[in-house]
Specification:
Layout (H helix, E strand, L loop, with lengths): L1 E9 L1 H13 L3 E14 L8 E8 L2 E9 L6 E11 L2 H10 L3 E15 L2 E8 L2 E7 L2 H11 L5 E2 L4 H8 L1 E3 L2 E4 L2
Parallel strand pairs: 6-11
Antiparallel strand pairs: 1-5, 1-8, 1-9, 2-3, 2-6, 3-4, 4-5, 6-7, 7-8, 10-11
Length: 178
């Protein structure tokens, strides 16, 4: 599966404006959650073009593999494979037994909205406020127009890249926690 999304860095005022415009544009709030994301290093992950992530939300977890596709567009595309994980602790043990080790952890508060065929998320991380619009490129542009998004700063860096820049190192593990 190819994930197509565009990410914006928001000020508090911009985030508040977007949150006000979403329901007016017909978007439906699907929920809010707190995430802990652990990225692993090792083997094929060493070149930096792909990530292996274990995301925990409450008692649930998802294992994700992502590989970014080369592009200069502000709308990024990447291969994404995901599967639910019934036992996150067992999955951690399996990954470590296979030679992968945790290298980076970031926490995030996420609000998820749906507008037509697109998903819009408003994220709060320890190092900033962000919005991602995911869907087909044409749908992303249509949502931007519907929400009247002008002057927002596109963010090209991934959350792991931003965590590496803004996080703290503890015993070799980079962390960005609330």
């Amino acid at each position: 599966m190819i994930e197509v999304e565009k990410k914006f860095r928001l000020t508090k005022r911009q985030r508040d404006a977007v949150l006000k415009r979403l329901p007016d544009a017909g978007a439906k709030l699907e929920g809010e959650e707190f995430e802990e994301n652990t990225l692993y290093s090792g083997a094929a992950l060493s070149d930096g073009s792909c990530v292996l992530r274990l995301r925990r939300v409450g008692s649930k977890a998802t294992l994700t593999y992502k590989k970014r596709l080369p592009s200069s567009s502000p709308i990024k595309q990447q291969r994404e494979e995901e599967t639910g994980v019934a036992d996150p602790e067992a999955m951690e043990a399996i990954l470590e037994a296979l030679g992968f080790s945790p290298s980076l952890v970031y926490e995030k508060r996420r609000q998820t909205w749906r507008l037509g065929k697109t998903e819009i998320v408003i994220d709060v991380l320890p190092f900033g406020l962000f919005m991602e619009i995911e869907g087909r490129a044409s749908d992303i542009k249509a949502v931007e127009r519907k929400l009247g998004l002008k002057g927002l700063r596109t963010e090209h860096a991934t959350y792991p890249q931003l965590t590496a820049k803004h996080g703290k190192v503890y015993d070799g593990l980079i962390e960005s926690r609330f």
